[in-house]
Amino acid sequence: xxxxxxxxxxxxxxxxxxxxxxxxxxxxxxxxxxxxxxxxxxxxxxxxxxxxxxxxxxxxxxxxxxxxxxxxxxxxxxxxxxxxxxxxxxxxxxxxxxxxxxxxxxxxxxxxxxxxxxxxxxxxxxxxxxxxxxxxxxxxxxxxxxxxxxxxxxxxxxxxxxxxxxxxxxxxxxxxxxxxxxxxxxxxxxxxxxxxxxxxxxxxxxxxxxxxxxxxxxxxxxxxxxxxxxxxxxxxxxxxxxxxxxxxxxxxxxxxxxxxxxxxxxxxxxxxxxxxxxxxxxxxxxxxxxxxxxxxxxxxxxxxxxxxxxxxxxxxxxxxxxxxxxxxxxxxxxxxxxxxxxxxxxxxxxxxxxxxxxxxxxxxxxxxxxxxxxxxxxxxxxxxxxxxxxxxxxxxxxxxxxxxxxxxxxxxxxxxxxxxxxxxxxxxxxxxxxxxxxxxxxxxxxxxxxxxxxxxxxxxxxxxxxxxxxxxxxxxxxxxxxxxxxxxxxxxxxxxxxxxxxxxxxxxxxxxxxxxxxxxxxxxxxxxxxxxxxxxxxxxxxxxxxxxxxxxxxxxxxxxxxxxxxxxxxxxxxxxxxxxxxxxx
Length: 585
Known about the structure:
The protein is an alpha+beta fold. Among the domains are: 126-218; 227-322, no CATH class; 344-441 and 468-582, Rossmann fold, CATH 3.40.50.300. It is built from 19 helices and 23 strands. The protein is globular. The N and C termini lie far apart (66 Å). The relative contact order is 0.13. The model is unreliable at 36-125 and 448-466 (pLDDT under 50).
């Protein structure tokens, strides 16, 4: 053996170039194996993904069925069954302080990182808690609300998010691909070992079993989207002057509850349920009852006779909920009857809410919007003008993100939609890497983990690819956010500036301004209908937030300079400057 080793030494001493070539190849192979380990077994949904729509409201576009590709933390009960926990979730050990923790190696693979992310998310946000495995029967479901199926991409978070968005308290997964929602669990608890099927879209995670549900209790904390089951809380309102015209259907309910009134109005196919003590009223939002002037909830604080913790209003002040009934007064859409004589742009920076604005305009006017591009996913979601050439003249306005002089001057007028750059950048980043209503993976924001310093020096190009795409994205897109607005202000003809934040805050007024520019006469009742259907089918969940601020100090300094630049340009044209919440950070 020593003789063989000596021959190797002598050979490489005579040919040092070959020695260093061999060494470089060896280190390259090692680094590739190391980087590859970060991808192999990566779940379809990471435990540490990001959220733009902390951004606030409807994101660049808006969905209903499944709303994202991020994983909520799974809650673990302190049962002492260490072997069971280890079997299902990896090498979980009990810490000295009595709390469960994960013994994760530095390079334990993507699954370990996802598990670690779940624990962090559970401790910090506590938005969903795993409560156990339950029997499920096709004849008598354990959870009896809405249900969803995805036999390719089902994840725990998708199910949780769907149920949470609809106001349910529980989410359950079965057969690795089925999701059920409900307010009560109407089944027997069984051993966790009986829930043993892997999620179709998330390796290493359990999504129930055969006739077994993995059930989670959802922690709903968004006051802005208060719900009672599937009904959305709209607020406390004064009794309308002409009650029989404003809310045409009424029923006396001595044993009143929110459930009973909402179910009654849903059965009668009305979108509004108004509780007035012992009376339940149903109707539509109209000019007689527009739901614009909310009153102090204390005026409605009379407990329901059949519910201890809910208010049922009074004869003078009504508690109003929006039911699941769709208001069809604004759902009809068609192409323009004749070719339009002018081309009007709906211009925005990517991520500024253009798809949401298109949804609102289509509902308000009854006409399809077009696009400078073609997006099949938008066409499949009902934007039928997507397939028309943008110069066809059959659509009410044209979506565009273009900002060149030639492209801008091709339009006769424009609605310029501007959004806070911090939120627009995150929304577009999520769209780019997660789709219209999905989310970029943690790896895109921060990379897949630390790389040894020695490998960084030898293989800088390889390491650069592992630090995430976010910094490069901000460097390229942040200047565009500013130049896009500046170009439209400079070269655009008849430009109406609308701030995304103002549209969210006062939809009725801002949408009215947009419709006026489009030259369409719209009844006020139709705009009120749009308000009740405003979210549409492209909306990122607001239940998630990044666990850190992705903007570094240098990024913030650069973006703040761009904000000031745009603010100055707007005020220089006697327009309202940017909203105050754009800065400081």
